[in-house]
Amino acid sequence: MADTLEFNEIYQEVKGSMNDGRLRLSRQGVIFKNSKTGKVDNIQASELAEGVWRRVALGHGLKLLTKNGHVYKYDGFRESEFDKLSDFFKAHYCLELAEKDLCVKGWNWGTVRFGGQLLSFDIGEQPVFEIPLSNVSQCTTGKNEVTLEFHQNDDAEVSLMEVRFYVPPTQEDGVDPVEAFAQNVLSKADVIQATGDAICIFRELQCLTPRGRYDIRIYPTFLHLHGKTFDYKIPYTTVLRLFLLPHKDQRQMFFVISLDPPIKQGQTRYHFLILLFSKDEDISLTLNMNEEEVEKRFEGRLTKNMSGSLYEMVSRVMKALVNRKITVPGNFQGHSGAQCITCSYKASSGLLYPLERGFIYVHKPPVHIRFDEISFVNFARGTTTTRSFDFEIETKQGTQYTFSSIEREEYGKLFDFVNAKKLNIKNRGLKEGMKQSYDEYADSDEDQHDAYLERMKEEGKIREENANDSSDGSGEETDESFNPGEEDDDVAEEFDSNASASSSSGDGDSDRDDKKPAKKAKIVKDRKPRKKQPESKKGKDPNAPKRPMSAYMLWLNASREKIKSDHPGISITDLSKKAGELWKAMSKEKKEEWDRKAEDARRDYEKAMKEYSVGSKADSHRGERSKKKKKKQEKQVKGKGDKKGATFKSSSSKSPAKSMSDSFKSKEFVSSDESSSAESKKEDSEDEGAASPPPSSEDSASGSD
Domains plus CATH for the chain? Predict the structure, then answer.
């Protein structure tokens, strides 16, 4: 048979709440570790008195009773595990694991039995419910009635606060059953009563949470905080941990007491009691006990008369009474030599202490995070300035803590500490690379792979190259399409063929033509490209080469099927996240291999793009030449049709009317179109034709006479 048994996801019933954790049974005893608080309950094998197996709401449960009256309940077992547990109890604890079922008749009358720290309400021989008397905060009596009040449970949505028992009168003389019931409850209940004298008193101590100055009275079983407004009684059993932390100024000390359950004031819960001391304060302390009692109770840890620094005396007394170790900062030292880091959490500034097994932040609000509950940490760039960075911690339960505004000089020390504790760093790269990037902190996040950002950069680079190529091509097309010189040549040829014999009209036209090129050039530059600009934004050519993929995208395409096979049913978004994690964790040598493939693909793309751009330019040149040739032919055909009008011109073209019509033409009229000279000449010929119509047959006959 195995020497140990381990069970995960077991629930321990404590003060009405179910706390999950891990249960381990060994030859030495039973150990339960709370997943939430990290608190460990250790039951020695020699202390076990009884074990009970029964069916409960979460499956099956195990109830253990010790010889000193304590009761421990663990739920979450499967029915099939009974045989294994029963054999283990017989072999190692010499106990029979008894099976007892709860009564489910629904009756509300029965018998009350007190056994150790447990009140059991039974019907016949079967228990209906059980109440741990340590959960009772107050017990009051009335006529034939006893009322039990319970501690509030902050972890549960609904808490049982009160139970009333009706106790029928009996015929026995001299015995009040109600008082007897109440005394049995009070003897085991967690009712704090300040009876007797305090062991010692510390006056007017500065307390940060809850805020104020309090007198602390040390009693054998609890701590009494007495202030001007509030009053708290803290049982030593609720103290989880003690911390003694030096302030960054080296002149003050924090003494932190971790509490579970917390102390309450209205709706406010205080999970930590934080005291602030000055190192210069000294005190002489005398315990309210004789020397024999001090020696017997504290076994040399305390003496009747002590003196020293105030913080040392308080911490020494608390350590002896609570019987827990005091946690101090480890070997971490920040940039300034202090054992803490100045930072901000939420809206307040405070100090973050890296400990040997966790982090603690003081003071508002105080936070304690153990290493074993951390999923990963992350170093992030500061949101407002590059002179600081953020330190993020995410727990396995999904809670995220962000400590911001940490000085950049603390980065190296904090990273080395986290790395030495082997915590999972979310944006981990090579250690040397991270230190190098820290020297230029503005680029500290470059080593964190961002697939989306890399793809956007690559696409932007390709678009810029395509824009440069298209702008070169469109510029050449614009020059060819809107070249004033070529248009002037066409117009000159057309009007040379249609010109009349008059020399004066030719001189006038040539004078106007001399002034036109400058005006035309200005119009071409200002107006024509704007009309042609939308045409340059054409759809993507399907024959154009495809832009190359980045190294990450090449790797992703090659690894996508393998990731799917390793994680069946994975969604697209989860696949992208998983791929990013794998790429980030890949070694530098493997990444260089994909970088080389990406570089080869980029060179091939540039080569294909050059060939494509040369071919597209040649095609555009041929297209423009064919358009010009066709346009020229159309103009020549049109000019031949207008020759007939030109033959009817008479010598009156040299008359003052012709010169007057020319003088009325403004510059705007002349330069309003590229072919304005041609249109003006045609208008002149049409006007002259209308003024002197062709002679009729009668006129020609009389003329011949």
Answer: 4-99 (2.30.29.30), 111-187 (2.30.29.220), 200-327 (2.30.29.150), 341-421 (2.30.29.30)
